[in-house]
Amino acid sequence: MQGRLARAFGWRVVLVTGWLGTPIHEFSHAVACWIFGHRVDEIRLFDPDLEEGRLGYVRHSYQRGNLYHEIGNVFIGTAPLVGGSLALLLLTWLFYPAAIQTALSISREIEFKGLSDSVSQILRVATTSLGGIIKPENLLSPRFWVYAYFVLCVGSHMAPSRMDYAGSLRGAV
Question: Based on C-alpha coordinates, what's the Rg of the chain?
């Protein structure tokens, strides 16, 4: 993703969001390494390398053949999805705690009766919560735009990279 963005708009555009999103991405990998007993050999939370097209990395090692370690690769590779989601939740709680309270109160009322009902209930929680954030009076507030920028920084770097998917595939197999 960063490669395509850099080719389209230049490397500096990637750095504008990467300073925050990349450390969260890489820290998520490191935490998953710790959970699954992998040794972190080297970590660069934010170390942009234009030639390699990367902003940071975690190099880790593990005992090959150890089932727990091998399966851990799946979770280590996809950890930025969880870490990024938690960071977005924290940002929302810091900037718009009422939206979190709304989501929690609606969630208490939900009774899941099937897959389609579950999806519609989750969408209801999301749209109601977002409605508390994205409203005309907030669009004029600097607070909203700072929040939106932070969300962009985290959200644009939480997707696993090609290397992350390769590591996850190794664990899945």
Answer: 19
Residues written for the chain: 173
CA 96/CA 166 separation, integer angstroms: 37
Count CA within 13 A, CB hemisphere, residue 65. Answer: 0
Q: Give the chain's end-to-end CA distance (angstroms, integer).
A: 25
What b/e readout covers 134-151, taking b as 16+ CB neighbours within 10 angstroms?
A: eeeebeeeeebeebbebb
CA 40 to chain centre: 20
Report phi then psi at 92, rounded to 5. -65, -40
Q: Residue 43 is inside which H or E element, if any?
A: strand 39-44
pLDDT, tens digit, for every residue of 71-108? 999 999 999 999 999 999 999 999 999 998 888 887 77
pTM (whole model) above 0.90: no
Q: Which of 29, 23, 39, 44 shows the shortest CA–CA distance to 74? A: 29
